[in-house]
Amino acid sequence: MLDQKVAKLLNEQINKEFYSAYLYLDFANFYEERGLSGFANWYQIQAQEERDHAMLFYQYLHNNNAKVTLEAIAKPDVALENLIDPLKAALAHEEYVTGLIHTLYAAAQEVNDFRTTQFLDWFVKEQGEEENNANQLITKMDLFGSDPKGLYMLDNELSTRVYAAPSLVL
Ligand code: FEO
Q1: DSSP labels for the chain?
Q2: pLDDT in tens, 112-151
Q3: Ligand 1 atom with minimal separation from the 16 CA
Q4: What does the alpha-carbon distance between residue 108 and residue 111 come to, in Å, rounded to a whole number?
Q5: How far apart, in whole angstroms, are the C-alpha atoms of residue 149 and residue 101?
Q6: Distance, CA 94 to ligand 1 centroid (Å)?
Q7: Ligand 1 site, residue 20, Cβ cutoff 6 A
Q8: Environment class of 23 (CB within 10 Å of its CB; exposed 0-12, middle 13-18, buried 19+)
Q9: Which of 78, 101, 82, 100 is CA-nearest to residue 90?
C-alpha cells in the first residue's frame, strides 16, 4: 500500500501533467495563429507527451490500488507576446516540473518506497531531456529567429517532429 503523502503527491502530479498539456496546447495555438505551423506542431506533440505523463501517474496509482481524484485543470496563465516567449516559458515550466518530480522522489525515498522511486526514475531522466530540448530551442531561436529565412528553416525543422509513445510501460 502506498504511503499517504506519496499517494497524494502522485495524484497531484496527474493534474500538473494535464496542466502542462494545456499550457503547451496554448503555445501551439499562439504559433498557429502566427502562421508558424512547425512550432505549433512541436508543441502539439509536446502536449500529447504531457497527456501520456498524466496517464502514467493515473495508471500507476490504479495499479497500486490507490484512489485517483481528478481536479479542475487551470487556465494557461502565461502572457505571450514575442515569438521566443513560449520557448522561455517552456524552459521555466520544465524546471518547475523537475522540482515537483524531485520532491515526489524524495518523499518516496523517505519511506523506502522503492517501487515508486523506480517508477519515477524514468521521469527524472525525461525531465533532463525536456530541459535540454527547451534550452536548445531557445539557443536556435536566439541564433536564427531574427532572420526571416532562418525562422522559416527553423519552423520547417520543427514541423518534422513526430509523436512517439513513451518508452515507459507499466
Ligand atoms: Fe511531463 Fe514536460 O514533463
Answers
A1: ---HHHHHHHHHHHHHHHHHHHHHHHHHHHHHHTT-HHHHHHHHHHHHHHHHHHHHHHHHHHHTT------PPPPP-----STTHHHHHHHHHHHHHHHHHHHHHHHHHHTT-HHHHHHHHHHHHHHHHHHHHHHHHHHHHHHHTTSHHHHHHHHHHHHT------S---
A2: 999 999 999 999 999 999 999 999 999 999 999 999 999 9
A3: 1
A4: 6
A5: 39
A6: 6
A7: yes
A8: buried
A9: 78
Chain center to CA of 132 = 12
How many Cα atoms within 13 Å fall on the side-chain side of residue 78?
24
Question: Is the overall model pTM greater than 0.70, yes or no?
Answer: yes
Percent of the chain with pLDDT over 90: 97
pLDDT > 90? residue 169: no
Identity at 168, one-letter amino acid code: L
C-alpha cell at 24: 503547451
Spatial separation of the C-alpha atoms in residues 83 and 112, rounded to whole Å: 45
The answer, yes or no, to whether any atom of ligand 1 lies below 6 A from the CB of 26, is no
Ligand 1 centroid distance, CA of 92 (Å): 12
Residue type for position 128: G
